[in-house]
Amino acid sequence: MVGLLVKGCSNQDIARMLVLAPRTVAAHLEHVLSKLEVTTRTLVAVRAAREGLYVPLGPLP
């Protein structure tokens, strides 16, 4: 999911790609925000990229 955030996908896009409910994606995002101790999805993406938590696998479908 973090990889999709880094790529700029919305919660709706992520839900569609991962076959989840948008509310489930939002709940997971809240957990990620808490774990990384950040307040925005942009900061999740920046921190993930800087700390090597995200490794691109290739283009999105």
List keywords for this structure.
mainly alpha; 61 residues; Arc Repressor Mutant, subunit A; globular; 4 helices; single chain
What structural class do the secondary elements suggest?
mainly alpha
- The CATH architecture can be named as Orthogonal Bundle
CATH class: Mainly Alpha
Question: What is the string of helix and strand elements?
Answer: HHHH
Reported for the largest beta sheet, the result is: none
Relevant CATH superfamily: Winged helix-like DNA-binding domain superfamily/Winged helix DNA-binding domain
Please bin the fraction of helical residues.
55-70%
Rg, please? 11 Å
Extract low-pLDDT stretches: none
The span between the termini is 14 Å
Number of domains: 1
Overall geometry: globular
Provide structural commentary.
- The chain is built from 4 helices and no strands.
- It has helices spanning 2-6, 11-18, 22-36, 41-50.
- Helix 2 (11-18) packs across helix 3.
- The chain has a single domain (2-50), classed as Orthogonal Bundle (Arc Repressor Mutant, subunit A), CATH 1.10.10.
- The protein is globular, with a radius of gyration of 11 Å.
- Helix content is 62%, strand content 0%.
- With 61 residues, it is mainly alpha-helical.
